[in-house]
Amino acid sequence: MERYEPLKIEQKWQKKWEETEAFKATEVKGQPKVMLAEMFPYPSGAGLHVGHVRNFTIVDVLTRFFRQQGLNVMRPFGYDTFGLPAENYAIKTGTAPQEVTAVNITNFRKQAKKLGYAIDWSREINTSDPEYYRWTQWCFLQLFKKGLAYQKESYQWWCPEDQTVLANEQVENGKCWRCGHEVEKKKMKQWFFKITEYADELLDEIDNLEWPEKIKTMQKNWIGKSVGAEIDFEVEGGAPKIKVFTTRPDTILGATFLVLAPEYVGLEYIVSEDCKDAVAKYKAAALKKSEIERQENKEKTGVFTGAYAINPATKEKIPIYVADYVLAGYGTGAIMAVPAYDERDREFAEKLDLPIVEAELIDRDAYGTPKVTYRMRDWLISRQRYWGCPIPIAYDKDGNPHAISEDQLPVMLPEVKDYKPDKSGRSALAKAKDWLTVEIPVKDPKTGEVHMKKMTRETDTLDGYACSSWYLWRYASPRDDKAAWDEKAISYWEPLDYYCGGDHAVAHLLYIRFWCKFFADEGYLPFREPIKRLLYNGYINAPDGKKMSKSKGNVIDPLDVINDGYGADTLRTYEMFIGPYDMDAAWDTRSVGGVYRFLNRCYNLCFGNTSKVDKNVVVRNKTIKKVTEDIHRYSFNTAVAALMEYVNELYKNGASKEDLMVLAKLLKPFAPHLASEMLEKLDSDDEWPKWDEKYLVADTVELVVQVNGKLRAKFEIEVDDLEDEEKLTEMVLADERVKKYTEKGVKKTIFVKKNKLINIVV
RNA sequence: GCCCGAGUGGCGGAAUUGGUAUACGCGUUCGACUUAAAAUCGAAUGGAAACUUCCAUAUGGGUUCAAGUCCCAUCUCGGGCACCA
Questions:
Q1: Is the CB of A700 under 7 A from strand B?
Q2: Which one, A159, A323, A425, A478, has least CB within 10 Å?
Q3: CA-to-CA distance for A106 and A347, rounded, in angstroms?
Q4: Is the ipTM of this complex over 0.90?
Q5: Please, are residues A414 and A458 in contact by the beta-carbon 8 Å criterion?
Q6: pLDDT digits (tens, 9 = 90+) for A339-384
Q7: A225-374, superfamily in CATH?
Q8: pTM of the model
Q9: Which nucleotide C1' is nearest A710 CA?
C-alpha cells in the first residue's frame, strides 16, 4: 500500500486547480449565490503568518462547504498595499515601494496557493494598482461633489524637527517616532470625510446586523450618541455669547462657572487684558501636552479668563475658565460646570476653590434647545505621505480646491527618487515638479463656457482606509474600466454574505458601512449594509501563550510546518481544530502531529481494504449531521473532532466504500487535497452528503435515573416505553440499584422525555 | 475608571434549549509488532478512596427536583474605550 505523502498529493491537486481555473465564479441567473471574503491582507515582506492561515482557512472551509452543497460561490482575494511600511522601506533602502509591493504580492500569492484555497484568482485586486486607485479617486470625487469630502483647519500632531504631521500612532510617549523630538499640536488645513452625516443611520442599523455582539457594542460606543441640550450664556462686556452642550440641562441651577477648551474658537475675545498672558501660556502648554501625558495625568488644571458669564437660570455672574479637561472637538468645546453633579467639575472646583452648589433639578427644556451630539468625529483622510492614493484635487491661484475631471483619472502617483517628507510640510509628491501643474476644465459660471485652467495639484494622499472602503464591491467586476463596479454584477453577488477577519473592529468596518450608505443614496448601490455576516476570529499566539514577534523569536512560520512534511492539509485542519474560531489560541507543535496522524488514518482507511458489510450506517448518518450543523454554526473544532470520532469507529468496525465516500466529502473543506485524492480513488463526486433521520432513531435508548439529581442507574429501554411514564417509573422504583436510595420514601418523580431521564426526589 | 469576553484534568478544549461533566486531541503509562528504536496498532488515564462511595467546572452565597450553564458578590486574565460634559 502507498504511504500518505502530503506534499506530493498537494502539488498534484494545486496544479490541477490552477490549470482548470477550478474556482472561477460567474453569475448564473436563478442559482443561489454565496460570496465570502477575508479582510484582505497587507502583503508584508515576512510573508504569510499563522494568523493569516487561520483567517483564510475559515473562509475556505465555508467556501468549499457551500460549493459542495451546489451553491454558486465567489471567493475572491486582494492586497491592501498602500501604507507606511512600504514607504519606510523605500526611504531606508531607496527601493521604490512599487517594486517592494510587487515582490511581496508575488510571494504572498505563491504562499496562498500552497495552502490550496478555493480562490477565484481572476478576481485578484491590489489597491496601489492605478487601475484600482483610479476608482478610489472616483469615489472621492463623488463624496467631494456632495460636500462630504471637505477641508477644515484643525489641530494635528506636528514634529518641529521633521517639519511634518504625524498620525496618532506615530507619536510615542509624546515624541516623534523618527527623531525623538517632542511633538506639539499645530493648526493645519486637512481633508475630512463627513461620516458624522450618517451617524444616526450607522448607529440604528447596527442591531440588524448578524455580527458578533462585541463588535456591535464597540461600534455603538465609538459613535457615542448623547442626547442633551445647547444653552447660550451671555458674556459680560459684550463678547460673543458662549454656547455650551450638556446632557444635564436640568442641573443648570447648580452651574457655578463655565469652562472652555484651550482651543476654543473666539477665546481671544473673551479673555480680559490682565489675564491674557496667563491664558496664552496655559494654552501653549496644553497644546504641547502629549496624548500620553493627558491620559496618565488627569489632575485638573486650568486658568481664569478674567471674564464672567450670566447663568440664564439664576441670573448670577459666574466666572469663565480655560481648562484642558474640556475637549475642543466634542460638543461646542465649552461646558457649564456643575460641580455638585459632575465628578470632573467637582474635582476642578475643589482644586481652584470654586463654589459648589447643591441646587434642585428643574425642567430639562427650560433654558436650552434639545441637541444630539456624537463622540464620533469626521474622518481625517489626508496624509502628507508618498505611498498612498493621490487626492484628485487641484488648486487655483486663490487656493480654492477643484475636482480633477473624471476623464482625467487616474491621477497617477508620480515617480520620485526621495520619498522622505521635507521641511515644506508636504509629501514627497511635491518634488515631482512636472506632475504638480495640471490643466483642468472649468466652467465659467456666467457664460457657461468651459476653459482649461492651469492649477496646482494637491500633494496629500488618502488614508489607506479609503482604499479599503469599497474594495468588496470591486470584486464583483474587478477588471471593469467603465465603472468602479458593474451594476448587474454587484446586484447579483452582493452584499457580501460572509466576511472574516480579526482586526479593524471599528475603523474599517465603520468606514465601509458609511461609504455603502452614501453610494446607496447616490443610486450606485442597491443595498445599505455591505456585510451581512461578520466572523471575527481570534489571534494565534506562540506556544508560550505570548504574542508572536520577531524580537521574541517565537514566531511559527506556516510554510515551515508545510515543508517539514506535514503539508497544507494538516496545517489547515490543525488551525481549525485548535479551538473556537473566535477565541485566541496558543500554538502547540505536538498537537499538529496529532492532526497529521488523523489525516494519515483517513488515508490508510481509504487506500487499505474496504469492508463488504455496511456496519456503520448509524454513526455515518450521525457524523454527517454533526459536521453539517457544526460548520453552519462555525464550530469548526468540534466538526473536526466528530470526523476523528468517525474515523476511530471505522477503524474498529471496518469501513465500507460508502463510509469512505462520506468521510472524504466531509473532510474536503478542511483537507481538500487529501479528500480529492480519496474521492478520485473512490471514483466519487464531492456532493455534500445528506443524513437520513430514520437511522438516527434507535429501537432502544438509555434511560438515566437520578436520585436527588445524582446519577444512580442506567436502563436500556424500548423507545416506545418513553411514552408511558407511569410504567417506566414503576419499573425504575422496583429496581435494586434504585431501591437502596429510596428507603426513606419517594417525595416525587420528575420525568424528562426529551433527555430520557427520571429524577427521583427523596 | 467604564464597557465587553473568558476562567472546566498534567495541557488545548467539549457539553448547541438548566437535564448522564471532562467528547476529541496532546501528554503519560502498559501491551502488541521489532534484535532494538521510530512509525503503526490496541488498552488505561480528573482526584481521593477501594468494589461501594465521596469530592471536583476560579472563590463565596443563592434560585431549582436538577446548575459548568441562571441570579448576587468577590478574585484573576484578555480585549476595547479612556476627562466625550
A1: no
A2: A425
A3: 58
A4: yes
A5: no
A6: 999 989 999 999 999 999 988 999 988 898 999 999 888 888 988 8
A7: Valyl/Leucyl/Isoleucyl-tRNA synthetase, editing domain (3.90.740.10)
A8: 0.93
A9: B66
